[in-house]
Amino acid sequence: MNLILYTKTGCPWCVEVLSIFKKKGVVFEERDCRKNEKFLVELQERSGQLLTPTLDCDGELLADSDAKAITEFLTQKGHPSFI
Predict the structure, then answer these.
(1) Where are the alpha helices (DSSP H) in 1-83?
(2) pTM value surpassing 0.85
(3) Rounded distance, CA 38 to CA 25, Å?
(4) Percent helix, strand and coil across the chain, each rounded to 5?
(5) CA neighbor of 62 nearest in space, from 22, 20, 17
(6) How far is CA 28 from the centre of its chain?
(7) In this structure, which of 4, 51, 52, 69 has its CB flanked by the most CB atoms within 10 Å?
(8) Which pLDDT score is estimated for 32?
(9) 57-66, Cβ contacts within 8 angstroms, sequence gap of 24 or more
(10) What is the pLDDT of residue 61?
(11) CA distances (Å), 49 to each of 1, 4, 13, 81, 82, in order?
(12) What is the pLDDT of residue 83?
């Protein structure tokens, strides 16, 4: 399962998701939209919005989310860290 998490430095919802991912040992790529404007443009083009955290799971986007929704989404997808 390929995971990309679009974040923004200082976003409390992003911090919460990052903390859960770290605790569970989730392998993912973080794309901080404040550190690299290219990621912000990519986020807007792919999701139609600029809000984070946004998760890309094998090309399926969960936009403007939170830790609870991301956890539920990955559980439903059968991600090994959330079984």
Answers:
(1) 12-24, 37-47, 67-76
(2) yes
(3) 27
(4) 45, 20, 35
(5) 17
(6) 9
(7) 52
(8) 98
(9) 57/1, 57/2, 57/3, 58/1, 58/2, 65/13, 65/17, 66/13, 66/16, 66/17
(10) 96
(11) 24, 16, 16, 28, 27
(12) 87
Tokens of 48: 């139609």
| CA–CA dist 57, 1 (Å, integer) | 7
List the CATH number of the domain containing 31: 3.40.30.10
User: Per residue of the chain (83 residues), what is the pLDDT tens digit?
Assistant: 999 999 999 999 999 999 999 999 999 999 999 999 999 999 999 999 999 999 999 999 999 999 999 999 999 999 999 98
Its domain, for residue 26, covers 3-82
What pLDDT is stored for residue 36 in this prediction? 98
Amino acid symbol at 14: C
Q: How many domains does the chain have?
A: 1
Question: Which of these, 80, 69, 78, 77, lies nearest to 27 by C-alpha position?
Answer: 80
